[in-house]
Design a protein that fits this description.
globular, Protein-Tyrosine Phosphatase, Chain A, 5 strands, single chain
Amino acid sequence: MPMIIVTPLSAIEDVIRRYKPSHLITLLSPEHMIDTPEGIPADAHLRIGVHDVRDPADAAQPPVADHVEELLDFGKSWTGEAPLLVHCFAGISRSMAAAYILLNERFGPGHEEAIAKAMRTRAPHAFPNTLLVKYADDRLGRGGAMMRAVEAMGRGAVVPEGEIVEFPLSLDEL
């Protein structure tokens, strides 16, 4: 089944073995960046070195609009035939933002709230990075709809690490 899988760093080896994804997106602080794991072709691994902050002044490497461009461009290279794996350190903020952005790009305008509600249902711990979402909202021309939907999700369950979460590439199954 075509899907986006979000996981914390600690589970990526297990997820690669279990789901056999064709593509991998890593969003980690630059000082903690990983090499491409076995089972993933190097050209199918996007590595974004970014700190998990919501205010650009709070880190040396905050999310910027170019990160969203990279993410969207990479997402277009993924056919959906095999799963896409997205991870950050905890599987809560940066990776959930990336999944939310990619799902919005795939499903098109008008589905921002439905995607956010599905994310909250599937991932009670999700707290998408709003800086990444803001840049994507601007880039995709959503007029604030993505931001409003993510803000309506609220903080979610506070956990030290998220679970493995599947997001089908079908609005009916999402």
